[in-house]
Amino acid sequence: MNQASVHPPLSNIQLELLKLFPNDIPENNLAELRNIMARYLMDKARDKADDIWEHQGYTDEKLQNLLSEE
User: Fold this and answer.
1) 10 Cβ contact list (under 8 Å, min separation 6)
2) By C-alpha distance, which of 6, 66, 38 is closest to 30?
3) Coil/strand/helix, residue 63
4) 68: enclosing H helix or E strand
5) pTM of the full predicted structure?
6) How confident is the model at residue 25 (pLDDT cuts 50, 70, 90)?
7) What digits encode the pLDDT tens for the residues 30-57?
8) In the chain, domain spans
9) What is the pLDDT of residue 22?
10) What is the DSSP string of 11-53?
11) In sequence order, which residues have a C-beta less than 8 Å from that of residue 25 and are 6 or more positions away?
C-alpha cells in the first residue's frame, strides 16, 4: 500500500522566495541574496546565543575558567 505524504503548507519565507522565481536573476544578484540570507540567519543565531549567555549569567571570566578546565 502506497501512503501519500502529507506536507504542511509553505512557510511565509518560502512564499516570499517563490515570488522571485518568475524573474531571471543574474548569478551575481543571486550570490548577493544568498549572502544576505546567510548574514540574517547568522545575526539571529548570534542574538539567540547572546540571550542564552545573559540568561545563564555567563561572563568572559567564567568562559575562560571553563576553557582552562579542559
Assistant:
1) 18
2) 38
3) helix
4) helix 60-69
5) 0.63
6) confident
7) 899 899 999 999 999 999 999 999 999 9
8) 25-69
9) 79
10) PHHHHHHHTTTTS---HHHHHHHHHHHHHHHHHHHHHHHHHHH
11) 33
